[in-house]
Task: inverse folding
């Protein structure tokens, strides 16, 4: 007598939990102007390295002020940093964080650069949403995210997890470092960034007819990026915004950790790289 095997009906059975799943791998990537951060499935650690390539005698920065200005240079950097770290004979599922206001141009350039890693699929996620996921924030309510990077500061309003409004300024922690190095300067970079954030939030409040911004601000903004590690800047933001401020744990790696969370959810989805499931799994450890 022949007994027919019952076919698998559980879509999630396609993939075993990382790192047990050997036929595929995943990569979460945050391409910053100064630092590139990556999380590789099964490694249990975040790679945090300078965003720099060496096309000739000197160093070259292929990402500047939140924009990919050199796609081939970015591709060479990714190949040098990650090519040998990915399992052989696999095509990774890649999740890349993107600045909110750069739109399709950044996404197109990021996908072109990541192509050097031979991905089977590339998903992009706004950095602000990735930060909110890393912080395990309540996305059913309006949320204000302030992300102070090296060269760029973004203020983003999320509603139901989607971007509702956003502002940005070309100021960041590099400007704070420059001010610190020059003790004779009259420019207070921390005050300038604090003022810029307050101005952006005020503009969002004026133009918002739904009161979502006011609701999010009253409950407190979420602060991420390297700037969140500066107590002087945090104090100025609290003074200028006149609202609570919650610093994300390990704020400088929040975006890549949020991308890793999306990556884990996508890995277990039947499409394994297509539509994400409605819920997200636990943060990677």
Result:
């Amino acid at each position: 007598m022949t007994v027919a095997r019952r076919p698998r009906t559980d879509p999630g059975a396609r993939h075993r939990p990382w790192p047990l799943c050997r036929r595929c791998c995943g990569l979460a990537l945050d391409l910053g102007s100064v630092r590139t951060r990556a999380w590789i499935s099964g490694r249990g650690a975040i790679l945090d390295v300078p965003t720099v390539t060496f096309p000739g005698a000197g160093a070259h920065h292929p990402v500047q002020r939140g924009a990919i200005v050199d796609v081939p240079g970015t591709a060479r950097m990714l190949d040098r940093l990650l090519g040998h770290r990915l399992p052989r004979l696999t095509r990774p599922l890649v999740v890349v964080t993107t600045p909110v206001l750069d739109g399709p141009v950044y996404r197109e350039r990021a996908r072109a650069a990541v192509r050097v890693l031979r991905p089977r699929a590339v998903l992009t996620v706004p950095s602000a949403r990735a930060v909110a996921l890393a912080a395990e924030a309540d996305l059913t309510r309006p949320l204000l995210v302030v992300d102070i990077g090296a060269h760029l500061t973004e203020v983003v309003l999320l509603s139901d997890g989607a971007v509702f409004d956003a502002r940005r300024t070309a100021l960041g922690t590099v400007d704070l470092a420059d001010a610190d190095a020059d003790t004779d300067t009259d420019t207070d970079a921390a005050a300038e960034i604090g003022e810029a954030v307050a101005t952006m939030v005020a503009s969002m409040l004026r133009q918002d007819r739904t009161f979502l911004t006011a609701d999010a601000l009253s409950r407190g903004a979420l602060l991420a990026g390297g700037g969140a590690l500066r107590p002087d800047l945090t104090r100025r933001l609290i003074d200028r915004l006149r609202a609570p401020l919650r610093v994300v744990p390990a704020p400088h790696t929040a975006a890549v950790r949020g991308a890793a969370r999306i990556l884990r959810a996508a890995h277990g989805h039947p499409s394994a790289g297509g539509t994400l499931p409605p819920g997200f799994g636990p943060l990677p450890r």
